[in-house]
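Re: weekly structure request thread

Next one in the queue (483 aa):
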Amino acid sequence: MKIRITVIFLLLTGFALRLYDLTDLPLDFHPTRQLFALIKARGMYYSTLTNVPAQQRQTAIDLWNSKTTFEPQIMENIVAFTYRFTGEQIWVARIYSSLFWILGGMFLFLLTRDLTTEKGALLSLTFYLFLPYAATASRSFQPDPLMTMLTISFWWSIYRWSKTPASWSFAILAGLFGGFAIAAKFIAAFFVIGAGVAALVMSLQDRRFSRQSSFQLSTILLLGILPGASWVIYGTYFSDFLTKKFEGRFIPSLLISPSFYLDWLSMINTAVGLGFIALALLGIYLYRQRTLPVSLWIAYIIYSIFFDYHISTHDYYSLLLIPVTAISLAPLAELRIPNLKSKIQNLELRITLSLFIIISSFIFTRTLHSIDYRPQAQQWAEINALFPPRAKLTALAQDYGMRLEYWGWKKAYVWPQHGDLAYEDLQGGNKGFEKRFTAATNNRDYFIVTMFDDLARQPELQAKLSTYLIFAQTKDYIIYQLK
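Done, posted below.
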């Protein structure tokens, strides 16, 4: 009963922490990805409205349809549906993402309790809920929190199936959780397959695998493949939005570049912390049955090689490393110090976990409190008000112009940032400046620059724009008149 109360307390506290600064704009964590989802959700919501101006409604729908579709729009549809009751409130998505992450924590506790002990499970759960990066990332509007919850649920159900391979209930649960995890975001496939292989190996090692188990395994595979495969087939053969989905994800030349591995370690350090990674490796060594955690680490390495560019440039691509690390840390809770009483060691563990919660919560709340993004909404609305209604724009702006789209209701032709040009060079697809500038400004009225540092890193663009008249200028933007 005491453990149950502690778990409930941790889950509720973890959820309450994520409600801090709830109504601030979603610019604190990978805003491009969050605005991408917000624009889609708003378009879906406005498509159901009849009490708004027709032009505004159509603009919202057009902006939604202008966005590429990758994963099934599960989160966007849930948020858009909720808007019918709350109105368009950006905090709705944060609540859903946080809830999914918290539910994932419940399954993580159940899994690590089966793998180790209740104390080990509490250690894993505390790390998973209160790591500062996890607190920030888990409330972002993207499919990753949902995918993480479904993936952890799969790990738990497939592990339980490996211990009781005659159980149809765990087989069906594993198939459903795994299938929907992959459908939510394809990268889950690596971790689903890794855990599935581990479960099969454990079942064979324990000699629990039978003819009935093979039927159940077939069911797991069918249910696991069906949702994701249906989406891929639809997006590839019945539509073309997935045709180029995986282009540019794997760049072979990066694997022989020392800077790739340094950048990869930097992303891991941001998401988890290299100190915790070292402790996790020690934890794996202490496992009695380490098949599952080792398989998850192997899955992460294979996945990272497959997405080598993004794993070294996007820290949230290592988000699933957080529950993997949490599982690996669990055995550390059972370390025994010679000549020290068990009660004292238990007290030390409770103090350590309490300090971790307090310090991590302080870091998280202080970081959010340090910046107020709310004025940005008014700023982008004011920029939009400068232009005639049908003005055609080109922009070198934050988040590929999505702030202008969401708060300014204006679509712009996006000029690539310096990092995008470097990415094109890696792929050998740079178009050349003059050709690119002509395409970007042809029949356009204004060129907006809000990223001054990035403009300074593109001297050709800076020199070209200096030949045009300045239409408007403040400390936040420069607008050039192209005609």
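The two ends are 73 Å apart (CA to CA). DSSP finds 23 helices and five strands in the chain.
Next request, please.
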